[in-house]
TrEMBL record:
Any one of the GO BP annotations: 'de novo' pyrimidine nucleobase biosynthetic process
The protein's name: Hypothetical membrane protein
Organism per entry: Brevibacillus brevis (strain 47 / JCM 6285 / NBRC 100599)
Cofactor(s) required, per the database record: FMN
GO-annotated cellular components: cytoplasm; plasma membrane
Swiss-Prot/TrEMBL keywords: Flavoprotein, FMN, Membrane, Oxidoreductase, Pyrimidine biosynthesis, Transmembrane, Transmembrane helix
Length: 631
């Protein structure tokens, strides 16, 4: 697929998601990418949540800026934009092997009026927005100055800062040191907002020094080292392309270092070939105050800003935000979380014991008005069928208990905010599922007692706020083999989480509506109407079991999904063990009971078989990244 087409489809997809109700929250929720408060930086009157931004040129039409603002960036640089559209007669080319992007039309844009329309329809962006200003190629000094002044006037009420693209006028005889200074001075007098020079790193020191000196003397705030390096286009003689990516990184870093020497108090934004966190740290070490991403977002994915934020945070002295301290109620919150998990495991073990032996409890028999032997006399398979539902529920409860205990010990104990959020979301869904079967007139005493005992523990586990973003681990700096394997492992666990959640929702819906699927009735060798004729209270009991299992599965699935989305970090071995240990009771009970009772319909069990296969592959892929000892 041509790069322009691929970019358009990607940006339109995430842009559309951001525009639907709740879309921005979904994007933020999926990635959990909001930067830690410790990373905020100030430039004049503007505060940036993080020194990591998105550079101009990636979304020139501003299709997805609302979505991109949720990716963990501290600012967005839009553009380049000129007064009138600049049409490209070239192409964008990707060099995947070298991880480069080649632009033959470096100032292509749809003009100021198109940008204004897009910005008007992009409400809700909470991070600073800058715009890279450009003029038509080969314009005179006066025309260029007037055009950029007009652009500033139209955009000043929307933007937090401006950058001035110099590429259209580089190398022209008219643009001497004096001309550049006059140009910058006029623009400086036009606005009080921060004004930065945007200059490509491929300029020689002799070419760059007059422009830097002019910008400094005119009172500009600093510069953006961006735009790529100039290379000759091998496909067309006497034409040049701007290349950004791995090939431009070394030269861009060198240019940043040289610029810092020439202009010590300048605000410098480094850009070019930031493909992994180490590249960003290299820019900062060379003297940059901020970094911008471009090709890295294409080749390393939308998680790169978050990874860079984590790397920057991990290299800073440990300073956790102040916590709201509340007096412990008998035990700290994390202990209550562990007790909640242990309670779930004990409850699950008791449910498993009953389901594997008597199947029904005395209050079940009282509600039905029939003993277990009488049920078996009516239908030889009915107790086995009820056992298969109840064993599956028990295994899910044990799995949830393992997840909660691990989240409490490794997360709440260290006041990690994302672990508290997972406990809140999963637990709220799990406890709410009790309302799914209230309308059937059947009261499950064991379920009610367990809920009454565990719910206060759930509330006490959430009593203390948690605002710590990360544990202190050596930062993940490189896109190495372990990281690439872990991406696939993470994806597979996300699929499992979505699958469990979806399966739980479907089972819950079946439980409160038709109760049975066709393979159930084949196993029972009876129709639903016949079961109803046996005992009109029998189906409500089965429906209760199904609804309870479905609700527990949703709770379990959400916990697995959110752990997979938010918790995969190098060296977090407890995440691997949590997913591994939680999967064992769920899969063993869910699949094993089917073989025990003889309910082995292949189509019915196919999703479980697929889930087990994905589970095992995901564990193998994640183990080196999560469990390998970090030197």
């Amino acid at each position: 697929m041509p790069p322009e087409r691929a970019r358009s489809i990607t940006l339109k997809s995430i842009g559309t998601l951001a525009k639907i109700p709740g879309g921005p929250s979904i994007i933020e929720w999926m990635g959990h990418m909001e930067p830690p408060s410790q990373l905020s930086k100030t430039m004049g009157p503007v505060t940036f949540p993080t020194p990591v931004g998105l550079g101009a040129g990636l979304d020139t039409e501003c299709i997805a800026i609302q979505a991109l603002s949720k990716f963990g960036f501290g600012f967005l640089e839009l553009g380049p934009v000129s007064k009138e559209p600049i049409v490209s007669h070239g192409t964008v080319q990707r060099d995947i092997t070298a991880m480069n992007i080649h632009y033959s039309g470096h100032l292509v844009n749809n003009g100021i009026y198109s940008l204004l329309r897009r910005l008007t329809g992009s409400a809700g962006i909470k991070i600073p927005i800058g715009v890279r200003l450009a003029c038509q190629p080969e314009t005179s000094l006066r025309e260029a100055t007037e055009e950029l002044q007009e652009l500033i006037g139209k955009l000043e009420h929307i933007c937090s800062f401006f950058t001035i693209d110099t590429r259209a006028n580089l190398g022209q005889p008219e643009w001497s040191h004096t001309a550049w200074k006059e140009h910058f001075s006029c623009l400086r007098s036009q606005t009080d907002l921060p004004l930065l020079l945007a200059i490509p790193p491929s300029l020689s020191e002799t070419e760059a020094l007059p422009i830097l000196t002019s910008a400094k003397e005119a009172g500009l705030n600093g510069l953006v080292v961006a735009g790529g390096i100039i290379q000759e286009d091998s496909s067309c003689a006497n034409t040049f392309v701007y290349t950004t990516g791995r090939s431009s990184h070394k030269q861009a870093v060198k240019f940043v270092s040289w610029t810092r020497e020439q202009w010590p108090d300048a605000l410098i934004i480094g850009s070019g070939g930031v493909l992994e966190p180490q590249d960003a740290l290299t820019f900062l070490a060379a003297g940059a105050d901020f970094v911008q991403l471009h090709s890295g977002l294409v080749y390393s994915g939308p998680g790169l800003p978050k990874r860079i934020n984590e790397a920057i945070l991990q290299t800073q002295p440990a300073t956790n935000p102040p916590q709201e301290k509340r007096p412990a109620f008998l035990f700290p919150s994390w202990v209550w979380g562990i007790l909640l998990g242990l309670g779930m495991m004990i409850g699950g073990a008791l449910a498993l014991l009953v389901a594997a032996t008597t199947v029904v409890l005395p209050y079940d028999e009282r509600f039905l008005g029939m003993s277990a032997n009488q049920l078996a006399f009516l239908n030889a398979q009915i107790l086995s069928f009820m056992s298969h539902d109840r064993v599956s529920l028990a295994g899910t409860m044990i799995s949830i208990g393992i997840l909660y205990s691990q989240l409490a010990y490794h997360g709440l104990r260290k006041e990690l905010h994302w672990t508290r959020t997972i406990l809140l979301v999963s637990g709220a869904v799990g406890f709410s599922s009790i309302f799914l079967f209230i309308g059937y007139g059947y009261f499950d005493y064991l379920h009610a007692i367990l809920a009454l005992v565990l719910f206060p523990m759930f509330l006490l586990a959430l009593r203390t706020p948690a605002k710590v973003h990360l544990t202190r681990l050596p930062p993940q700096l490189h896109n190495d083999r372990d990281w690439r394997m872990a991406l696939w492992g993470q994806l597979l666990f996300v699929i499992i989480g979505f699958g469990l959640t979806g399966a739980g929702i479907i089972i819950s819906i079946i439980g409160v509506t038709g109760v049975f699927v066709p393979s159930d009735l084949v196993f029972l060798c009876v129709s639903a109407d016949t079961l109803q004729s046996y005992n009109e209270r029998l189906i409500p009991v089965i429906a209760h079991d199904r609804a309870g299992f479905g609700g527990a599965l949703v709770s379990n699935g959400l916990a697995v999904l959110l752990i997979s989305l938010w918790g995969i970090r190098r060296g977090e071995a407890w995440i691997w063990w949590t997913l591994f240990l939680a999967g064992i009771p769920g899969f063993v009970s869910g699949i094993g009971i089917h073989f025990t009772v003889g309910y082995v319909d292949f189509i019915h069990l196919l999703p479980a078989y697929v889930a087990v296969l994905i589970f095992l592959i995901a564990l193998v892929l994640l183990k080196p990244y999560l469990c390998r000892t970090i030197e």
